[in-house]
Amino acid sequence: MTESPTCPLCGAAHCSHYHRDQRRDYLQCPRCALIFVPPAYHLAPAEERAVYDQHQNSPDDAGYRRFLSRLFTPLAAELAPGARGLDFGSGPGPTLSVMFEEAGHPMRIYDPYYAPDSAVLAGEYDFITATEVVEHLAAPGRELERLVALLRPAGWLGLMTKRPRDRAAFASWHYILDPTHVCFYSEATFEWLAEHLGMQVVFPAADVVMMRRDPKRYRRMT
Fold first, then answer.
1. What gap in Å lies between CA 87 and CA 183, rounded to an integer?
2. What's 218's DSSP letter?
3. Alpha helix locations (H) across 82-197?
4. How far apart are CA 18 and CA 109, in angstroms?
5. 31 Cβ partners below 8 Å, 6+ apart?
6. How many other CB atoms sit within 10 Å of the CB of residue 32?
7. Quick one: pLDDT at residue 62?
8. Residue 3: predicted pLDDT
9. Which residue from 7, 105, 117, 141 could staple onto 12, CB 3.0 to 4.6 Å apart?
10. Residue 198 falls inside a structural domain
11. Cα separation of 28 and 37, whole Å?
């Protein structure tokens, strides 16, 4: 029997079977509760890019702005005037960064396909956002730790991603049909992550999580 891969978030071994459909397997971590797709089922970069190229997001789309406001509104309420931010995984039509700039917050953007300026990942930020991004990450532990390290003391990390409820709902969940979605985070997963990094965590909406770096408790995962 082939040994199961380790958890891509916390590195735990002995991850167990969670679900299988016609396309791929899903495992669950016994430590952080992350549900993830083994690397053998991940798309190649060119295939992944082709899926993202189909997205039609734009700051001119009022509906998309309403969707993003589920994170924008609670996060903006926590920010000091002029707080500097980074939108990570901004996609082909950056919009959340525009919303924060309109609110007086200088923004940088990064996306490995559409805005691959790695220099922005050497900066320091008061807040970082990643909307509909973390479910795509093949190595979420490494990437999230890198982002948190860019935050100033008491800085915020704001994420949007849909959260699984239970095994029965997972089997018919539309979110797993996207072949670029490879990681699924429950509240328990984010609570584990916040505790492990020494951060505070709140859940303003069903698909929103905000974590605040605590300068007295923050520590690296590795």
1. 20
2. -
3. 96-102, 140-149, 167-171, 187-197
4. 35
5. 7, 10, 12, 192
6. 23
7. 95
8. 64
9. 7
10. yes
11. 9
Q: Is the pLDDT of residue 218 over 80?
A: no
Domain membership flag for residue 36:
yes
Amino acid identity at 52: Y
Q: Is the overall model pTM greater than 0.90, yes or no?
A: yes
Looking up tokens 């691959």, which residue turns up? Answer: 116
Torsion of CA 85, 87, 88, 94, to 10 degrees: -160
Domain limits for position 92: 16-213
Query: Which two structure tokens, joined as six digits, stand for 200?
Result: 């505070």
The reply to whether 123 falls in a domain is yes
For 173-202, write each residue's pLDDT tens digit.
Answer: 999 999 999 999 999 999 999 999 999 999
C-alpha torsion angle, residues 129, 56, 65, 202 (rounded to 10): -30
Task: Classify residue 128 by burial, with Cβ atoms within 10 Å: 0-12, 13-18, 19+.
Answer: buried
What CATH number should be reported for the domain holding residue 61? 3.40.50.150
Residue 222 falls within a domain, yes or no? no
DSSP state of 114: T
Question: Model confidence over 63-106: pLDDT tens digits?
Answer: 999 999 999 999 999 999 999 999 999 999 999 999 999 999 99
> Total structural domains in the chain?
1
Question: What's the mean per-residue pLDDT of the chain?
Answer: 94
Sequence-distant contacts of 164-173: CB under 8 A, at least 24 apart: 164/35, 167/18, 167/19, 170/18, 170/19, 170/26, 170/35, 171/19, 171/21
Pairing of strands 16-20, 25-28: antiparallel
